[in-house]
Structures are given as structure tokens and as C-alpha cells.
Task: structure prediction
Amino acid sequence: MPRSSQAAEPITILSVALPTPLYRTYDYLPTPDNPSILPGQRVAVQFGQRALTGIVLDTKSESDYPIEKLKRINQLIDSQPILSSTILSMAKWASQYYCHPIGEVLFTILPNALRQGGDIKIASTQRWSINPETADSVQSHIKSNAIKQQTLYDTLAKSPEGLLESTIRLLGYTTIHLNALQNKQLICAETLDALTAAATKYQISHDPLPLSTEQHEVVDTLAKSLGHYQTFLLQGVTGSGKTEVYMNLVDQVIKRGQQALILVPEISLTPQTLNRFQRHFNCPIGTIHSGLNHNERLSSWELARQGAAKIIIGTRSAIFTPIK
Result:
């Protein structure tokens, strides 16, 4: 009589990208307690004599190597993918187009804290403003040769809602300048939780400037492309009102429940761009640039990924931000 046989359960093999200069991925097996792992999740693996963080690029059922020789991952780091399928596809394209190892491409996209296998943490931030109780005695507290302190105070005085510490640092001031003014009770700091700030209801803080006829024509033309990919070149000399066009379009994007990415050509332009958008929009705005410390960059990255930061302003590398 014929004997019945039970089909073997399919084996899941993880194709893992590692931060190495080699043009390939590496096959690993999941741990028994984590059989279902998705592309975009980070895993801790043993690579030769080194313990590395890897990113699962794909799952498959077959390998070019004998199954019994494949190592299991040491740990699944993320409960959910931290890189979307869109970001993974863009990384694969960039790897092929620029002939660069896929692992190095992916780890360039990640904030430094996540490259080391750390948890996703959203840091709190400080918002600084002048102390109204000591506003009348500023001159007696700041020495005439303390030029940086005076200009910092004047900058904060022009920003009644305060400035984030990251913005203040981009303007060329340091913790020393902030502490000096704080010790004199001229300024004060408020600790903001990024997630709490992200829950702020969106609204325009200030009435926008009225658009000219030409600006209206440009906005109407560009607004028709919202929702699908199309490029435009907006030409105009400095001061001709291009930023007003951008902000009007961003306003429409946010009202659609979406996010906007604003790229600036160099880091020195980030503070003035951020300040202008903060005065116009009352919504969470993230910044991505090399002037941020690791925790600040990770926070902006995660708020953008969650969809909490409605506007992201950054330099060219911000193009890799995983905007929801």
C-alpha cells in the first residue's frame, strides 16, 4: 500500500544587508521565536568575528548555500519595519545606479543611533525665550564686550514664541552663551516633549501675505499636480516671492493630510528658512542636517516617519527621510 508523507514546512531565509563594502547581501535564518520577519526590520547578526546590525532586505525560500551552514540571527531588533518598501526600493535603485554596496547605501539612510542597533527614541527639546520680568534691566546685566550674549538676547527678543535650541546653535551660539544669559535670569527654557508638540492642531499662525497675480497663476498651476509626480522650475530673483508660493502650496499639502519636504542648498540657510516657516505654520516642523546631534536627528527622523512632523526642512541628505 502507498505510504502517506507529510510535506516539509517551508523554510524562511532572510536576505540581510550589512554595512560592508561588498556588493551582496547575506543569508541568515530567523530565530525560532521570531519566525515572521519583514523587510525593513533590523537584526543583530554574527558576521565572522564581528557582531553587526543588519537590515532585512527580502525573505526567500531558497539559498545558494546549504541550509545547515546558514547562521541564525542573534536578535530581532525592531518589532515593525523601520524602513518602508518605498525607501528600500529607492536604496536598491541607488545601489545599482551608483554602483555602491547596498548595505552601505541603507546604513547611510539611517540615523547614526540606529546604525549601531540602538532603540528608536524621541528626545525632548528646549525652547528658549526671554524672561519678561528682567526685560527692563538687560543693559545692566550684559557687559559691553559680551557681544554674543547681547546679539543672542536680541534674537530671542525678536521671537516672542521662543526658539528651539537646535535653531539657536545653527545661528552660531553655544550652550555657554545660553547658560550665561540664563544665570543672569534674562532668558528661560521650556522643555518640550516632541510627541506632545506633534499633537498640536494644525493652523496658520499668521495671515499669509496676499499673492500677486503671477504668484496666483504659479500656485494654481502647481496645485494641480499635487498627488502625482511632476517637476517644475520656479524662476525669480531674490525677493520676488518664491517662498510665499512654496508656503501656500505646503498649506494645501498639509490640509490634504500629507507632509512636505523643503530642501535648502546649504546648512547656513536652514535657520532663516525654519524661522520663516515657524512664523507661518503652527504645526510640528522637523529639521534634518549635519548640525544636529545624534538624538535630535533621530527625533526628527522618527517624527517624520510617524507622520507627526508635517513639514521637514533639511539639506540634500534629507531626501532619504522616511516621510509617511
Summary: The mean pLDDT is 86. The longest helix spans residues 242-255. The chain has twelve helices and 13 strands.
